[in-house]
Amino acid sequence: MELKDYLSVLWRRWYIVVLVPILVLAGVLYQQSHAHPIYTATTRLAVVREPEPAPATPSYYSYDNYYAYLASEYLLDDLVEVVHGNVFASDVAHTIATTKGIQMSPGEVQAALGGDRLNRILTITATSTDRSQAVMIAQAAGETIKAKAGSYFGYKTPAQQVSITTVQTANDAVPNTHRTLLLAALQVAVGLFAGILIAYFVEYLDDRLRSPETVSAALGVPVIGAIPNGKGR
Q: Residue 90 above 90 pLDDT?
């Protein structure tokens, strides 16, 4: 089959190609109308490792803030993994119980938390179908990091080893509309692809001869002439 033959199949079965994505879109809209939105609250912290005291004996290497900033970036890589761990989730749950009087399981907290970093900025996110709960978890996570960041690495005096400053407080949570729209678009695209496959499958099951070439191939005889279908009259 040539390209025009494939296109002619889609033209004949256009109703299948159109109907399947429409049905998928209707299902997506119904699902979204009955689904609970997911909210995300964000806390951002500037993390800096405090410089070590300069040695009494002069050294070739200068103990200035450059090495403290470099160590801070390595520390942040580790803190991102700490945020994803169950130990940190347990500490956040304890902070919530102490400050808010609300009991949450560490597993529930861990499922809500996410972390990332850019340069020396640590970003902690909390997602939940409950807007206020997302804000509460993000705030508690920021408080926990500020209080216990150094202890996760065995520092004897965490407050002196790590300096943490809040640069964004989780005062509100925003709905994840972009993620919802992206998933809807992907589902409709899959529906369109499925419609095309179904159209070709239906054409495969149809044993009618639609062109002189298929008649000649099926009967093994040459085509002498063809009668126009009269649509052009």
A: yes
- The vertex-145 CA angle with 144 and 147, nearest 5°, equals 65
Distances from the Cα of 214 to the Cα of 63, 198, 222, angstroms: 83, 21, 11
Closest CA to 114 of 74, 141, 90, 87: 141
Q: Note the pLDDT tens digit of each residue in 19-68.
A: 998 998 888 888 777 767 889 999 999 887 765 555 556 555 555 565 56
Distance CA 76, CA 66 (A): 16
Burial (CB < 10 A; 0-12, 13-18, 19+), residue 122, is buried
The residue type at 181:
L
CB atoms within 10 A of CB 6: 13
Q: Are 50 and 160 in contact (CB under 8 A)?
A: yes
**What is the value of pTM for the model shown?**
0.62
Find out whether 137 and 41 touch, Cβ atoms under 8 Å.
yes
Dihedral (CA of 183, 185, 190, 191) sign = positive
Nearest to 164 by CA among 124, 223, 213: 124
Contact yes or no for 47/120 (Cβ under 8 A):
yes
Return the pLDDT at 29.
Answer: 82
**What is the C-alpha separation between 64 and 50, in angstroms, rounded?**
10
Neighbours of 113 (CB within 10 A): 21
CA distance 81 to 108: 17
Look up residue 228 and give its DSSP letter.
-
